[in-house]
């Protein structure tokens, strides 16, 4: 291993990066774009659910109940339907995603038996939306029910006792205000690293093949390991710059609390970057076209990091077989570490296991990538 | 003209036939992605790891604890014996929720006062935390309502009449079992098609430029419009093929129902492909190397994915972003595809989306042809 030769490749690769200012700019803009889009665009909090009401009774009681829906911040009343068919149509064409139907004879039954039934029809194409909407609707109805009970008791001159006997006093740790941004942004850092790292390196070798410069490279005395180091070092630098951009945005722009140690953050970021760079390099060596390499690299890094790292979907809710697969996703360890560092401020000791796994992963990928390249032309 | 387009088509398909890995890349990734998304993507929350500490040990506290134990939403992983244990469990993330029933819980209830229930939630995943907290409130609400109703009934009976109680009966339309796969898989068809087609189109032209064969084409008598048609028609056909494959796979493997008219879906797909091909063409007019094409693709596709409503509801975005979504062809196509799959509605309902896609597609395509025309000169 000669450092002089590594240096030569580093210089050549860096020149290529610098001479293509657009690609470089994009490499630096991707983190900005990602952070802003995901930071602002992802919110699973639901407000202003479009609601359609169908009052088949039209009494004072039913209107009182519906008024509670229009007053709730979670619903926005889109209009009153005049027939059941109209309710169906407005759910069909998406004008509303919940319809409240008050059957005829509602208040009579309520008077006679004390029992009333209200129907909620929900557009369940978006399941998450539908179950949240159902939760809010049943809360509105429960509070209506409680208010009427209270009124009746008072009217009859009895003493009023509390109608919400159990009072939930919740304390949310690590993310007191439950800002979804605080948990999404650390994951975005991992996603950006995965994309940048694997994409940049996936083109390096494939480009030499496509442009026909591979023959030249092979004819030089360069050793495979030297070539790999030389090719990957410049991109490692670009990746770390991207990491700094993400980190600065997260802390200063999105005000995600950072409670951990910077040294742990940079060390683990370096490890993760090594993993993804090596994946990209390995793919680049194996698939000799740039399109193919970039597509496969995307498939191997971005997708697992988005889906299987716990970044957006909770791992413990996945089927057992899929949970087992998440252990071979490097992003899983990195996302765990990032969330622990950002929100919990976990010290080094607490992170020993995920850091060890990530280090092991990095070592294995370096070995795999280093062995992949052979100096032959066939 | 048709002859020249035919020859270009032939050339493209020959190239595809020779490239075995390209064929593989067209088929396998969509299926892998579909399997992954189908199994991994869910916002549902079940079996939340829970630790409970009951310091009251009364009949009331035990029945509240039982309500937690019997709920499918919570999974009791330990019964704590001290407050410290609850805190440790949440801090180390071995439990997501810790519930503490303080001493005096029952006596407060019996006196008709509000009895506090202390709940600790790990908020690192705010979505899960929020949903879990919702379930806690639901359980406590039901428990409390039952208790209050019981109390009120007794008071009410003393007053001569029962007290009112309004209940809600919910019906989930289009997806009665709230199967989140039914939501994700149709959406995936659109997303995967967008990514594949834009990538293929952009790279195909940029590669000709990079390798130098674009000049060769320029010296032939071919017209730019013929060139565009010859170049994009294969990808249009591939796009239709891909939608069909993924759609059939989703229906057979994940049992997602298809209630609509396949022709409506075909029409929507064709209009959608017009936009995606145009985006691919536009990218290839801006880029000189495949590396640039790659970064540009990413730069364009990623926002389209996030703003499409694929997994994050558009109505929850800031207003400025909501306006931007109207420029995203995937936004319209997702509505069409989900509505044809689950709702089974037709053109009478989907015409605004179809119109939106047509306008967007035609404008993008004209822009792309004009730009390509220029970049060829």
Automatic annotation (TrEMBL), chain A:
Major localization listed first in the record, in broad terms: membrane
Pfam families: ABC2_membrane_3
Membrane-crossing residue ranges in chain numbering: 21-42, 183-206, 232-254, 260-284, 296-315, 351-373
PROSITE patterns for the chain: ABC_TM2 (PS51012)
Keyword Nucleotidyltransferase among record annotations: no
Entry GO CC: plasma membrane
Membrane topology of this protein: Multi-pass membrane protein
InterPro entries in UniProt: ABC-2_transporter_component, ABC2_TM, ABC2_TM_bact-type
Subcellular location: Cell membrane
ABC transmembrane type-2 domain mapped to chain residues: 130-376
GO molecular function terms listed in the Swiss-Prot or TrEMBL record: ABC-type transporter activity
Family assignment from sequence similarity: Belongs to the ABC-2 integral membrane protein family.
Protein name: ABC-2
Native organism: Albidiferax ferrireducens (strain ATCC BAA-621 / DSM 15236 / T118)
Species classification: Bacteria, Pseudomonadati, Pseudomonadota, Betaproteobacteria, Burkholderiales
Automatic annotation (TrEMBL), chain B:
Topology of the protein relative to the lipid bilayer: Multi-pass membrane protein
Keyword Disulfide bond listed: no
UniProt keyword terms in alphabetical order: Cell membrane, Membrane, Transmembrane, Transmembrane helix, Transport
The keyword Cell division is annotated on this UniProt entry: no
Ranges that cross the membrane: 26-53, 182-206, 233-254, 266-286, 298-317, 350-370
Domain of life assignment: Bacteria
GO molecular function annotations of the record: ABC-type transporter activity
Start and end residues of each ABC transmembrane type-2 domain: 149-375
Predominant localisation class: membrane
Intracellular or extracellular location(s): Cell inner membrane; Cell membrane
Entry-linked InterPro entries: ABC-2_transporter_component (IPR051449), ABC2_TM (IPR013525), ABC2_TM_bact-type (IPR047817), ABC_2_transport (IPR000412)
Family: Belongs to the ABC-2 integral membrane protein family.
PANTHER family reported in the protein's UniProt record: MEMBRANE COMPONENT OF ABC TRANSPORTER YHHJ-RELATED, MULTIDRUG ABC TRANSPORTER PERMEASE YBHS-RELATED
Name of the molecule in the record: Transport permease protein
Gene source species: Albidiferax ferrireducens (strain ATCC BAA-621 / DSM 15236 / T118)
